[in-house]
Amino acid sequence: MVSFPRVDPHRRPVGPRSDPHHPGLPIARPMSPVKQVACPQCGVRVEWTPASKYRPFCSERCKLIDLGAWASESYRIPLAEPTESEDPAGPEGGAPAPPGRRSG
Q1: What is each CA distance from 70 to 78, 88, 98, 100, in whole angstroms?
Q2: Are strands 45-47 and 36-38 parallel, antiparallel or unpaired?
């Protein structure tokens, strides 16, 4: 014969995850507000959720416009300007090679 442990129906679960008014049920947490971001192309507010298919864009159209701008090189990453301590001519400009390296 198999015996099961006795369950006391009046026993309240102990711990922070139980609701004192409804024993045995977990405490309901308030839902956090859905984060919204602006579409980088048109500025429309878009919910940042897994259901947002084109995030951070609002639509496939804005996504493709942005992709086309990158493909046509409309967006460019600026080069860093050389500082005063750096020689703009570099080692080929007549400056001696750093120690441990052979020139030529």
Answers
A1: 14, 29, 38, 41
A2: antiparallel
pTM assigned to the model? 0.45
How far, in Å, CA of 17 to CA of 19, rounded? 7
Residue 96 has pLDDT above 60, yes or no: no
Q: What is the DSSP letter of 104?
A: -
Cβ-Cβ contacts under 8 Å for 82 (sequence gap 6 or more) = 88
SS3 38: strand
Structure tokens belonging to residue 97: 């090679």
**Would residue 91 count as lying in a domain?**
no
* Domain with 59 in it: 36-71
**CB of 48 closer than 8 Å to CB of 36:** yes
pLDDT in tens, 28-57: 667 778 899 999 999 999 999 999 999 999
- Is residue 12 a part of any domain in this protein? no
